[in-house]
Design brief:
alpha+beta; Nuclear Transport Factor 2, Chain: A; four-stranded antiparallel β-sheet; 6 helices
Length: about 150
């Protein structure tokens, strides 16, 4: 009886934290954090929410562009500002479309949505790395515009 009571007590103490962690690390909430960070121009937060391969790619492109540029402007500010302009406010809905293991795909709806054509709908991919969901951005267009190549 005492053993059962201890198990129940332990589970009642641990379960709220386990649920809180899984909700905090959901693909939907990570995308919402990403959207808020982009909208606010919080570039370090945006960078930290990207997957590790995308961060390495961005670092490499930034380094190469910094060598070519003679201005004080950070080379990837252009990309981040372009990204900021693509997000239509407000964020209306983030729906999990598919999740298989460490990969997820969301459908994101944003914009004023007064008329059907006012809404922006797009798919966003995420990957779980080191126990946390990260955005898998489509870097193809920005890489071509910044660097003239599709890959890093």
């Amino acid at each position: 009886m005492m053993k059962n009571a201890l198990v129940i007590l332990f589970l009642s103490l641990v379960t709220p934290f386990a649920c809180q962690r899984s909700e905090a690390d959901s693909p939907q909430l990570v995308y919402s954090e990403f959207y808020k960070a982009v909208s606010a121009g919080e570039w370090p937060a945006v960078y930290n929410l990207l997957d590790s391969n995308s961060r390495r790619c961005i670092d490499r492109v930034a380094e190469l562009l910094a060598r070519q540029s003679r201005t004080d402007q950070k080379p990837l500010d252009f990309y981040l500002q372009q990204l900021q302009g693509q997000l239509r406010a407000p964020l209306r809905q983030v729906t999990l479309v598919e999740q298989q293991g460490d990969r997820a795909e969301l459908e994101v709806v944003s914009g004023p949505c007064n008329r059907q054509d006012d809404c922006s709908r797009r798919r966003v991919k995420l990957v779980r790395q080191d126990g946390h969901w990260r955005i898998l951005p489509d870097l193809k267009r920005p890489l071509i515009s910044l660097w003239g190549r599709e890959e890093c």
